[in-house]
Amino acid sequence: MTNTRLIDNFNREHTNLRISVTDQCNFRCIYCMPEDMQFMEDDAIMTFDEIVHLARIFVDLGINKIRLTGGEPLVRRGVPELIKQLGEIKGLKDISLTTNGIGLITQAKDLYDAGLRRINVSLDTLDEAKFEQMTRRKVLSKVLEGLQEAQRCGFDPIKVNAVAMKGFTDDEIVDLAKFARDNAYQLRFIEFMPLDADDIWGRNMFIPGKEIINKIGAVYPLNPVSMNGDAKHDPAKLYQFEDGKGDVGFISSVTEPFCEQCNRIRLTADGQLRTCLFSITETDLLTPLRAGAPDETIGDLIIEAVKQKEPGHQINAVNFVKPKRNMSMIGG
Ligand code: SF4
User: Fold this and answer.
1) Which ligand 1 atom is the nearest neighbour of the CA of 312?
2) Nearest C-alpha neighbor of 259 from the set 275, 282, 247
3) What per-residue confidence (pLDDT) applies to 1?
4) pLDDT value for 151
């Protein structure tokens, strides 16, 4: 399988894998999961050995970047050890992690010592009451503490991912930009996507990336950054603050889809390969792995699935079908 590359029928090469290590989470964000979320049985979830085994097969097929996601990855014990094992895979150039941040208070140092160097923290509001309304948890101060601990440990960059929602956090867009500038975090605004469990998504709650750029630019002038080389695959469109105080990114998946440049695939916590965040179909890798299938066979399943990858999401199409899985079961 070595020297094989994961190229789809649209000639997009896939080098970036997101692995969900658990569907569980200690938050209940309203745009992600219901309060009474039913999580998968433990034995349905990949063991760390199975994750590392599959990761080796993916890297053999040309994957060179892995991002760990959840649910909330840090609610699963032993993630630093998993990162150490992944770090030993030859050909894997980069490992990153997306977290809601509170686990960083106790785990940032272990994660850093395990070899992790960059991290994304989800934070949509700086307002205590709104934070509680959005996450159904009263822990904003712990997220802020987690961010500071990550900075103390030397993580760089530390990206803050914010989902902007109309009538909810649109009055905080400039505050979040100021917060990131003052703390040297890289802010990423993500357009609200229809992957919520409670069907709250609607165009009335959605703020287009352009509107967010204008709001920030009116206070902190911005210069667009040209995205060349690998950067052109980055979902975030980057802007630099004119005064040099860092940059801010905009992931406008709904209004400015970047599917033509997509180089990402996903592995769910129960070992299903999703070629797109909005895939309606999946390829089961865990059952053949547990049945003792040779790596070659699993590799062929991956190659074929990627070949048949969707052209892109259909959010703006009249016949848009929402995936059965909500965000916490995909991992973003
Ligand atoms: S929607 Fe699907 S195809 Fe488009 S960028 Fe996201 S994962 Fe890639």
Assistant:
1) 3
2) 275
3) 52
4) 98
Residue 122, helix vs strand vs coil: strand
Tell how far the Cα of 250 is from the centroid of ligand 1, in angstroms.
15
* Residue 41 neighbours by CB distance under 10 Å: 8
Tell me the helices (H) and strands (E) count for the chain, helix number first. Answer: 9, 12
164 and 189 Cβ atoms separated by less than 8 Å: yes
What per-residue confidence (pLDDT) applies to 3?
Answer: 59
Looking at ligand 1, which atom is closest to the CA of residue 259?
4
Output the CA torsion sign for 281, 190, 59, 85. negative
What's the CA-to-centroid distance between 72 and ligand 1, angstroms? 21
The residue ranges of the chain whose pLDDT is under 50 are: none
Query: pLDDT value at position 150?
Result: 98
Per-residue CA distances from 93 to 15, 96, 97 (Å): 10, 10, 14
Q: In this predicted model, what pLDDT tens digit does every residue of 72-104 receive, in sequence order?
A: 999 999 999 999 999 999 999 999 999 999 999
Query: Is any ligand 1 atom within 6 A of the Cβ of residue 313?
Result: yes
The finding on whether 276 has its CB within 6 A of some atom of ligand 1 is yes
pTM of the predicted model, to two decimals?
0.95
**Considering only CA atoms, which residue is closest to atom 2 of ligand 1?**
276
Residue 146 in contact with residue 45, Cβ under 8 Å? no
